[in-house]
Specification:
The complex is a heterodimer of chains A (about 160) and B (about 425). Chain A has about 160 residues and is mostly helical. Chain A has helices at about 5-15, 20-30, 50-60, 65-80, 85-95, 105-110, 110-125, 130-140, 150-155. Chain A is globular and about 40 Å long. With about 425 residues, chain B is α/β, with parallel strands linked by helices. Helix content of chain B is about 30%, strand content about 10%. Chain B has an eight-stranded mixed sheet with strand order 6-5-7-3-8-9-4-10, sandwiched between helices. Chain B has a two-stranded antiparallel ribbon with strand order 1-2. Chain B has eleven helices and ten strands. The model of chain B is unreliable at about 1-30 (pLDDT under 50). Chain B has helices at about 5-10, 75-80, 110-120, 140-150, 190, 195-200, 210-225, 240-260, 275-290, 310-330, 405-410; strands spanning about 20, 30, 40-45, 95-105, 155-160, 185, 295, 340-345, 375-380, 390-400. Classes of the chains: A mainly alpha (about 160), B alpha/beta (about 425). At the A-B interface, helix 4, helix 5, helix 8 and helix 9 of A face strand 6, helix 5, helix 6, helix 7 and helix 8 of B. The structure holds zinc ion. Zinc ion (ZN) binds near residues 48 and 112 of chain B.
Chain lengths: ~160, ~425
């Protein structure tokens, strides 16, 4: 994962949200300097289902979702009544896709703090707080079985990821 | 222990007052009525069927899995009928139950959505029902879940819809005091497990699930920090334990898809129709979870708007599927001899054809409000001999669409707990 994919993620965010949010419009024109949320408390709005799927896709694959792909994923989404469950299934399917841009375990174990910061910027579009960074680095260091995909999965299924 | 077994073991006779008791799972079960059976499967057959072609056999017996008789299919269409295997059922379904030949959908527009809404809520709909509207009254799923026990799991009720278009919203209503928390597990398997969709989900089986506890710990930490919480607009939701069971089942199906074992699993010559696949997946749900209530619909016969012969063919496929469904129920431990199967079309079709003529010179049929034949349907209720009258045929006009929900409630023992909501009656003639 590198900064350019973070940028693409931000572009996709703009596409998905349109012009209703001033902050995201800023991002559209400042693609070299991704503007991050200063804190999670700035996120007040629940993503719509389509926004959620689009952003999830661009965050994990580093490219904006195509219309065809969005329709396919939406087909699965609309076919199951339990939306929490179907989102969980979609997230797991995407994370387990070999082309998903998830850092390697070696990279995570070598520089856990760097991994946590990048994961936060990529997925939550903000820097971790010192407490968050400490907690996650500690989890990585003390649980040797922990994989990058586990942390990505936890973030993607968190409440915060549902909001913008 | 199933409730029926509980009743037997404690010596309570059928019809006796049943006191609340705690199920092995720990939930309180307190409906006031006794149950006739512990499981109900309701099959909406199959997108607008006219009595003339079904129970009156004007073109021969197009439903040999459900109806007695060897009447030949009309000579002008018989060569267009697809080959089907012999019925999967040992004897036509009507011999295992009671057939209402002159059932009625007697009020409301004769649209599919209206017909479905009535069948699922037990209420007739207004003429102006929007096609994207949730029901105004509680659905059978909500009634079942609310009036059995507050904690009756959604794993016990399923709504298997032919497509993901429109019909999923019939899961739960906007009625005060009901709503998504009492919804069923709705699934549109033809769409969910279809090629395009399944291709996107297939990787899921590679997801490492070994660090669940660590994942949960991290998510809990993140959620505590965020403090937002999900909006209630998320709809119905399984508890974590049941969600995991459903996810495992989805994994199993995805694996079967990738192995090719769900490619015409019934070995139907030519192909399995969408109706057949929908019943196939309903059976998979029944086998996996043995739910107490499952509703499944079919839609293929609606080809009749443009193709009468195609309609007859679709009816034969739907009929074959119902025979297979019954056979599966009787071969599934937990369901065998403890399940009532109700089969009824949601609406009929017109007596007067439209102007579209098919390859065999037959005229197509719509279903319009002004044509009385579009309100004429049948209903077949099959079940254990100790519960349902076997081989009974009611030929005079009897029973209405709005009677199905109270009948389901009565079978599952909670009809008297529903507070004055249902205008229909229990279809008592069908029961011993
Ligand atoms: Zn139609």
């Amino acid at each position: 994962m590198n900064i350019s994919s973070i940028r693409i993620g931000a572009i996709a965010l703009v596409i998905a949200f349109g012009v209703s949010c001033k902050k995201e419009v800023t991002k559209q024109y400042a693609i070299d300097e991704v503007e991050l949320y200063t804190s999670a408390s700035e996120k007040k709005n629940l993503k719509t289902d389509e926004q959620f799927i689009s952003i999830l896709y661009s965050d994990l694959f580093g490219t904006a979702i195509t219309n065809t792909k969005l329709q396919e994923l939406n087909q699965a989404y609309t076919s199951m009544g339990d939306k929490v469950l179907v989102i969980d299934i979609l997230i797991k399917s995407m994370l387990a896709d070999p082309s998903a841009e998830v850092p390697t375990k070696a990279a995570m174990d070598a520089q856990p703090a760097n991994f946590v910061k990048t994961a936060y910027k990529t997925l939550l579009v903000r820097n971790p707080t010192r407490q968050e960074e400490w907690f996650l680095v500690n989890q990585i260091e003390k649980n040797k079985v922990l994989e990058p995909i586990d942390i990505y999965y936890a973030i993607l299924t968190s409440d915060e990821y549902r909001y913008y | 222990m199933k409730r029926r077994e509980f009743i037997r073991k404690t010596g309570m006779a059928a019809g006796a007052m049943v006191l609340p008791y705690v199920l092995p799972g720990g939930s309180l079960f307190a409906p006031t009525g006794s149950r006739k059976a512990n499981h109900v499967v309701f099959c909406m057959f199959a997108g607008g069927v006219r009595n003339l072609e079904s129970v009156h056999k004007n073109d021969g017996n197009l439903m040999p899995s459900m109806l007695n008789g060897n009447e030949n299919i009309s000579s002008d269409i018989v060569s267009s009928m697809s080959a089907l295997p012999s019925p999967a059922i040992s004897s036509p379904l009507q011999n295992f139950g009671t057939l209402y030949k002159e059932f009625r959908y007697d009020q409301g527009p004769t649209g599919h959505f209206n017909g479905h809404t009535t069948a699922i809520t037990g209420q007739y709909t207004n003429s102006s029902l929007s096609l994207l509207e949730r029901p105004s009254y509680p659905t059978v799923f909500e009634l079942y879940r609310k009036h059995n026990t507050p904690s009756m799991s959604a794993l016990n009720s399923w709504w298997i819809t032919h497509t993901n278009n429109l019909y999923p919203i019939l899961n739960y209503s906007n009625y005060e005091g009901y709503g998504p928390i009492y919804g069923a597990n709705q699934l549109s398997p033809n769409d969910f497990f279809s090629g395009d969709s399944a291709q996107n989900l297939i990787n899921k089986n590679g997801f490492p699930g070994t660090n669940d506890t660590l994942q949960n710990d991290i998510r809990k930490f993140l959620n505590n920090n965020f403090g937002g919480g999900l909006s209630t607009s998320a709809g119905m939701k399984n508890n974590a334990e049941d969600a995991a069971k459903i996810e495992n089942w989805v994994d199993k199906i995805l694996l079967s898809i990738s192995n090719g074992t769900i490619n015409n699993p019934w070995n139907i010559p030519s192909y399995m129709s969408g109706d057949m696949y929908n019943i196939y997946f309903a059976e998979e749900v029944l086998k996996e979870f043995q739910p107490e209530l499952l509703v499944v619909n079919m839609f293929g016969v609606d080809a009749c708007h443009t193709n009468f012969t195609g309609y007859c063919n679709a009816m034969r496929r739907a009929d074959w599927a119902v025979g297979h469904l019954w056979n599966t129920i009787q071969n599934t431990p937990g369901l065998a001899n403890d399940t009532v199967l109700i089969v009824a079309p949601e609406i009929g079709r017109n007596g007067t054809p439209n102007s579209i003529i098919d390859v065999n010179g037959r005229a197509a049929l719509d279903h319009t409000n002004s044509d009385p034949m579009s309100k004429e349907i049948f209903c077949l209720i099959a079940g254990p001999p100790s519960v349902v009258n076997q081989g009974k045929v009611i030929s005079q006009e009897a029973g209405r669409s709005i009677d199905i929900v109270p009948t389901i409630a009565n079978i599952l023992g909670f009809d008297s707990d529903i507070p004055g909501l249902l205008p229909g009656n229990v279809l008592n003639e069908a029961f011993v």
